[in-house]
Amino acid sequence: MSGIKVEFLNPFIKAAYQVLEQEAKANIGKGIPSVQESYFTLKDISVSIGVTGKVQGTVLYGMDERTAKGIVSAMVGGPVPIFDRVAESAVAELGNMITGIASGELEAAGYPCTISPPTVIAGRGTIISTVNIKRVLLPLNTQYGELEISLALQERLV
Amino acid sequence: MARVLVVDDAEFVRMRMRRLLAEHGYEVVEADNGLSAVHQYRAEHPDLVFMDITMPLLDGISAVREIRKEDPGASIVMCSAAGQQAMVIEALKAGAKDFIIKPYQPEKILEAIGKFMHKGEPH
Q1: Searching chain A, which residue's CA lies closest to the CA of residue B83?
Q2: Mind giving me the DSSP string for B44-79?
């Protein structure tokens, strides 16, 4: 298995702070990063975004439905009683914005890459294989609950 | 009434833009992919376009090229989460007037309208 470069982590943390603070008025506390061995999604809702270029792999954003509703409610400026299409689109966009900003930072650091459109996965226990790339889990605590950023990224050497 | 075409595959983004622009008196038309944007531009003749980049069927930069072929004076502002320099340059070369990086800041949207709106005023 390949390890993830530490310099790939910070752009995502920085971008997540920026987007969550701006979009959802979130107060954020950083949890302890860990390496994830599981292939299963452990949260109700996951947003998956592919990265290709000098850095390649997958980024997952996982959250419980209650957390997703809280974040989306702050984003749309009103209550979100059900997790509907607009809510799904909002969490997808949240992941898209974080990854997009982080990819700009990675490019500036010498790792140009492009990102795929987000995919939303609803339901725990879905198998998401990142093949032979280890995942690093970055938990962020907010007043809405925990947002887990899972990074399975590696440098493309050729 | 000035008309703005909002192109984004994310329903949430279109909803938010629709609200903001309607509050400021603009008529909003929407498209959820680049191909539909080209058709909508042809049909609706908007005064300004806000265009996402990564979309299904036809991406935003290709849509800008198609629209500019038909209307070289089209006012198009790119709005994207992906703010890589290479992408910004490609969008501007394709004929976009400006590039706004998401998350959306309403003041940036309104500023772009003030700078690039072709004709017409909000009611």
Answers
A1: A104
A2: H--SEEEE-SS-SSS-HHHHHHHHHHH-TT--EEEE
Q: What is the pLDDT of residues A78-97, one digit of tens each?
A: 899 999 999 999 999 999 99
Put simply, the answer to whether B101 touches A100 (Cβ < 8 Å) is: yes
Average pLDDT over residues A112-134: 81
Test A19 with B103 for CB contact under 8 angstroms. Answer: yes
| Interface contact A103-B82, CB threshold 8 A | yes
Low pLDDT (below 70) residues in chain B = 83, 118-123
Alpha-carbon distance values, A74 to A10, A79, B58 (Å)? 25, 8, 31
Phi then psi for residue A99, to 5 deg, are -65, -40
What is this model's ipTM? Answer: 0.82
Q: Walk me through the domains of chain B, giving residue ranges and CATH numbers.
A: 3-50+59-106 (3.40.50.2300)
Q: What is the pTM of this model?
A: 0.89
CATH of domain A6-155: 3.40.1550.10
